[in-house]
Amino acid sequence: QVQLVESGGGLVQPGGSLRLSCAASGFTFSTYPMSWYRQPPGKERELVAFITSAGDSTNYADSVKGRFTISRDNAKNTVYLQMNSLKPEDTAVYYCHVEQFISFRRYVYWGQGTQVTVSS
Fold first, then answer.
1. Nearest residue to 37 (alpha-carbon basis) of 110, 119, 117, 118
2. How far apart are CA 84 and CA 70, in angstroms?
3. In whole numbers, what is the pLDDT of the chain averaged over residues?
4. CA–CA separation, 114 vs 104, rounded Å?
5. Using CA atoms, how far apart are residues 22 and 40, in angstroms rounded to an integer?
6. Quick check: 8 and 106 in contact, CB under 8 A?
7. Which residues contact 67 (CB under 8 A, 6 or more apart)?
8. Given this model, what pLDDT does residue 99 score?
9. pLDDT over 90 at 54, yes or no
10. How much is the CA Rg of the chain, to the nearest whole Å?
11. Do strands 18-25 and 3-7 pair parallel, antiparallel, or not at all (unpaired)?
């Protein structure tokens, strides 16, 4: 079965950095695009960053462009989110995400989430 396990969250001061990791298993990781989402307190979940299966193309929410970098290591079945110049508004639970289309059905998988708190 598909499993996504995030790690690397924590408390960081404004301007600091964190690197999130998402270890994937139960599917052929190298053939699927991956995404990071986040859900700030009291708000809806939102897309933060996307990376293609080969890692040759990425896309970011406007709010994180130039500060966050998504990457992946297909040999380790892991996707990363490097977060620099963190702001208090980046405080959220961050989720790893993958979608699969099998036999004309769509399957959506989420990790358990990792809390990122940006505060002085």
1. 110
2. 12
3. 97
4. 31
5. 19
6. no
7. 83, 84, 85, 86
8. 96
9. yes
10. 14
11. antiparallel
| Long-range contact pairs involving 14-19 (C-beta distance under 8 Å, separation at least 24) | 14/86, 14/87, 14/88, 14/118, 14/119, 14/120, 15/85, 15/86, 16/86, 16/118, 17/82, 17/83, 17/84, 17/85, 17/86, 18/83, 18/86, 18/116, 19/80, 19/81, 19/82, 19/83
Whole-number Å distance between alpha carbons of 22 and 8 = 9
HEC string of the chain equals CCEEEEECCEEECCCCCEEEEEEEECCCHHHCCEEEEEECCCCCCEEEEEECCCCCCEEECCCCCCCEEEEEECCCCEEEEEECCCCHHHCEEEEEEEEEEECCEEEEEECCCEEEEECC
Q: Which tokens hold the place of 107?
A: 């399957």
Q: Look up residue 84 and give its amino acid.
A: N
- Find residue 32's DSSP bridge partners: none
Q: Which residue has the tokens 């139960």?
A: 26
Q: How far is the C-alpha of 8 from the C-alpha of 49, rounded, in Å?
A: 16
Mean pLDDT of the 39-51 span: 97
